[in-house]
Amino acid sequence: MSDMTDGIQIASAELVTLEGVAIDVATSAGRLIVEERPAHLGVASTKSSATDVVTVMDQRAQDHLLGALARRRPGDAVLGEEQGGRAGDSGITWVVDPIDGTVNYLYGLPAYAVSVAAVIGDPSRAGTWRPVAAAVVNPVSGECFHARRGGGAWRRVGTGLSVPVTVGHPRRLGEALVATGFGYAADTRRWQAEVLTRVLPLVRDIRRLGSAALDLCRVASGEVDAYYESGLNAWDLAGGWLVASEAGAVVGGLQGAGAAPSADLTWACAPEVATEFGLLVTAATADLRGA
Ligand code: LIP
Fold first, then answer.
1. Which of 53, 79, 100, 112 should be mutated for ligand 1, with most atoms under 8 A from CB?
2. How confident is the model at residue 4, as a pLDDT?
3. Which one is predicted more confidently, 84 or 32?
4. How many whole angstroms from its chain centre is CA 71?
């Protein structure tokens, strides 16, 4: 048996293998960032702004992921948020975020994740790549959300059995609980706040959890009904994109439902509200971004 994934044939057995590798390495990195978190964790450096922080554990966790993937999948490429990464010749690229929700991790807030996704295509070029297997691990709660293309979306807690997750069923947009996030640059946050003023009056409420990977997995599990955010990188969204899609969510980008999620706009929601929600966030973002 093989699965056609956007023109590239991947054997079903290979997808099972990739999902298992994602689960193992994300779980292992999750243990590292919890068990070896320094008592006095500080900011090792910053990136795009003074609030875009990197801790020593971000780099250590990514180095751990790179080493584990090199052992398990030596021919695959790796693209990570932090320094490092490598080329490969297998056609598979691992897109990894060693700590998604770094600020939560820095403050000790229990909403951060290790996201590991096997993708085909070029993850540095939006719209040209797709995740085919993934795991998103919250090492504090012990939750591991995982999926492979065509295999459904699952959640395992600790060493328990995986159980299927499916999206929520809000009856209308006004009853939808919506998660979102904001960038690190003040100018970006200014127009993102304007987008929020258009969304907030039309939905049940907003949640800002602080990790895109977990936000997308919460759409998959029905713990929120929808999510949108601009400014994400491939590593923020790759794992959650597959989990949400396999759980039955509609996932889209600035060009609407089915368009690839990207830095311009990433959104996911329960099918019942997809038309209204997709129109709302794409129109508001197109109108206000960069304003
Ligand atoms: C975070 C995202 C979150 C976003 C934050 C930040 P990081 O990723 O997961 O959704 O709102 O601004 O980008 O930087 O913690 O890997």
1. 100
2. 47
3. 32
4. 24
Residue pLDDT, tens place only, 173-207: 999 999 999 999 999 999 999 999 999 999 999 99
Pocket probe mutation, ligand 1, options 45, 81, 96, 211, max atoms within 8 Å of Cβ: 211
Conformation bin of residue 69: beta by default, left when phi > 0, alpha when psi is -120 to 50: alpha
For residue 101, how far is its CA from the centre of ligand 1 (angstroms)?
5
Ligand 1 in reach of 272 Cβ (< 6 A): no
Domain check: are 255 and 179 in the same one?
Answer: yes
Tally the domains of the chain.
2
Q: Atom 16 (ligand 1): residue with closest C-alpha? A: 100
Looking up residue 271, the CATH number of its domain turns out to be 3.40.190.80
Q: Are residues 44 and 62 in the same domain?
A: yes
Q: Which domain holds residue 200?
A: 173-288
Q: What share of the chain has pLDDT > 70, as a percent?
A: 96
pTM over 0.85: yes
